[in-house]
Amino acid sequence: MHPISFESMQLKPELLEMIRAKGFVQPTPIQLQTIPLALDGHDIMGQARTGTGKTASYGIPILNCLVPGGGMQALVICPTRELSVQVRNEIAFLGSALGIQVVALYGGQSIEVQFQALIKQPEIVIATPGRFLDHLRRGSVCLEDVRFVVLDEADEMLDMGFLPDVETILSACPIPRQTFLFSATLPEEIRELGLRFMQDPQEVLIDVDEPTVPIVEQRCYRVHPERKIQALCCLLEAEQPRVSLVFCRTKRGADELAHRLEQRGFKAEALHGDMSQRERDQVMNRFRRGKLRVLVATDLASRGLDIDMVSHVINFDIPDDPDIYVHRIGRTGRAGRGGVAITLVEPNQIKQLRVIERRIARRIKICELPGQNRGWSRHEEELFKQIMKAARQASNHYLSMARSMLDREDAVFILAGALRLLEEGSAVPEKDLLSNPPEEPLEDTMVNVEIPVGKVHGIKADELVQWLFDHTLLREDQIGEIEIDQHSTFIEVPLEFVDEIYQVCDQPEFMRPTAKKKAPAF
Fold this sequence. Notes:
The protein is an alpha/beta fold.
C-alpha cells in the first residue's frame, strides 16, 4: 500500500506547486490526519506540539477551498504577535500562486497601516485576540463571508487570559462555518470551549504519549549558581552551535545574560515582552539572517517562534513546569534535523529535573562540562572561595574601583592579574591554575555514608535508593553496597556526592550523616 501523499489529496495544482516549492515531500502525521478531515468539512480539535507542521495542516485545506476576490473568508486567531507573523508568512507563501491575500493584525503595529491592508479585502486574516476585537468594534473587518475559523495554540491563549476575547470573537462569527482548534494540551476549559463553538469536532492527537522529539539529544550539567554564566560560555565555545536559543526565567535575567555574553564576544541579544514590537522584529530579523548566534529569550516572548535552523536549546534556568521544558526543546530538531537540548541544573533543583524526567519518560544524561573532566583543583576551589568571600564583603569603594577598571581593560585580563597578586600575598601555594589535577580522582574514591535510620525504623534498601535518586543527581550505577543495621544504614557512594547527601539528609527526621573514606579499588 502506497503512503498517502499531497498529490493524492486532490489539491489544486497551483497549491501543490507551492507545497513542493516549500520543500514539503510527505505529509507529517498531523497533516496526514487533519487535511482529509478538513477537506471533508469536519470541525477539528487537534492536540500537537510545536514543530509538527500544524500551520500547514489547516492552511492547506483552507487555501484549497477559498475563492480569490471573495473577501475575508478565513480568520486565524493566535496568542502572540510573533506567531501571527509566522503563520501569515507560511500561509501567504503557500497561497501565493492562488492569488490569495493574507494579512496579520497585531498590537504594536500602526493601526492605520492595518486599515490600508484591510481595504484590499484579504481572503485570510491572522490576528491576536485584542487587536482583532479592536478592528471588529471599529467596523474595519466584516465577518459575514467567513467560512473558516482557526484557534492556534489555544492553551496559550487560556494561560494569557484571552479566553473571554476568543469567546466574543467566536460568537460574532457566522454559522455555518468550519472551526479548527489546535493546542499543545487540551485542558478542560479548552475542551468546553470547543464543545460550545464547534459542530461534532473530530479529535486529532499527535505525539501526546511521546512529548519530546526523539532526535533531540538531551543533556544536563550540574552547576553552582555563581558559575552558570561561565558554564554557559564554556558550552557555547565547545559546542559551536549554528544558532542557539537560551531560555531565562525573567526579562531582567535575559537582558543581563545577553549583555554578559556579548561582553565575552558572543553575538547575543535578548527577546522579551518589555521590548517594543519594532525592537522585537529587528532582533528576530537579525537572528533569522544569521547576524546573531545566541538568542536569549523568556518563555512568553518565545511563544510561537518557529525557527527551523536552531541547533541548540539551552535552559539557562530550568523551568518549573515540565510541559514548558517540552515546549522549549521542541524548538530544535525540526524537519528531521538533529538537535541538542542542554539544561543547567543547580544543586537545589534536582527535584525539578526528576519531575521533567518522569514527564518525558526518559532519563536526561548528566555530563561533565567540556574541559572540566579533571575537576577544579583544590587550589582553584580555595582561591574561588577566598574571592567570593571577599566580594560579598566588598565596600562601595572597591565596587567603584572594579567598575572603573572594567572600563579600561578586559575583565579576564584584570582577573588574571588579581589572581596573581592574591597568590603572591596569600598562604595558598602557587600552582598551575589550568592543569593542576586533584591529588586523587574523585570518581575513583568511594565513601561509606552512615544514615541514622535502620531496621527499627522500617527502612528498605529500594526506598532509600529511590529517595536518594529523587533528591540528588546520583545515578543507580553509582550506588554501591547498602548495609542496613538495627539503628543505622551504611551506603556506598562516590566522594563527590557526599556534600550533596549531607544537604538533603539535613532535615528534622535525619541526623547529619557521617562519611568514612574507603580506599579506591584498583
